[in-house]
Predict the 3D structure of the following.
Amino acid sequence: MSARLSLRRRAVLGGLAALAAAPRITHAASTAPIRIGYQRYSTLILLRHLGLLEEALAPQGIPVVWSEFVAGPQLLQALAAGAIDFGQTGDAPPVFAEAAQPGGLVYIGYEPPAPRAEALLVPADSPIHALGDLRGKRIALNRASNVHWFLLEVLKKAGLSFADIHPAYLPPPSARAAFEGGQIDAWAIWDPYLSSALATHPRILTTAEGIVANREFFLASRTTATHRADVLRAVTDAIARTDQWAQNHPAEVTQILATETGLSEDVVRNAVVTRQFGYHPMDAGIIAEQQALADGFLNAHLLPAHVDVASAVWTPGAAR
């Protein structure tokens, strides 16, 4: 038995014993696969390892197909193209996706905030010591990702805007190379890339604490939400049980994510402690929070169109 299978068996048999009586869906629109998009550091990768969704859908003959993405914007591009049915991203990607293709996705639920899980880094010897020092500087970020909103609010706090900096839109691996090579002045980044980068001892100019919440959302295509509501309910139940397990088993979570990302367990452990696990369906407070984010991007002329978040929220059982 491989180490991965052994880990999965120990996790399921040990940590999930109290959750064994999980409900099954009663019927489904079809036995077509449910296609899940995930990132290597997320609740969905834990769900994949634990196998709870496969367990719930097997009696109906519904397979689960997993696809990996480097970040949320790329994942939602696949969702919009019909290549996947469901995924998990940070707060900004769905706003940009809705602005580009209105009506293509629905919000299913969210997880607790993790403001310590994203930060703005500068080199240890950088002359940048205050947020106002960012004026005129070249700052790397992944466009339309959670750190896009974070950086916008950091600049706002300093009395600056995106017009006052030189943004470098780079995915995390390229941004790290540019940062360590001295080609950029600062880097807005999230975990686990953040915890990995800290091993080279840059300086944290600021985390998101007191600036933005940094939430993750679960999203589905509107087609899936309309025609496969029973399957989505099985997905959200499996996510809720995974989060319950993860909150109580940080050591096992660390081991799984270290294996998946290829990072050391020390690095991943430092990342895991910055977040909490827990699935919640969408509510009025979160909808308002997400609407404020969308309006903030629009007012900063970074979003091409108004986005109505409330119209993109899934209500189980309601016709759409």
In short: Residues 115-207 form a domain with the D-Maltodextrin-Binding Protein; domain 2 fold (CATH 3.40.190.10). The radius of gyration is 20 Å. The first helix runs from residue 3 to 15. The chain has 13 helices and eleven strands.
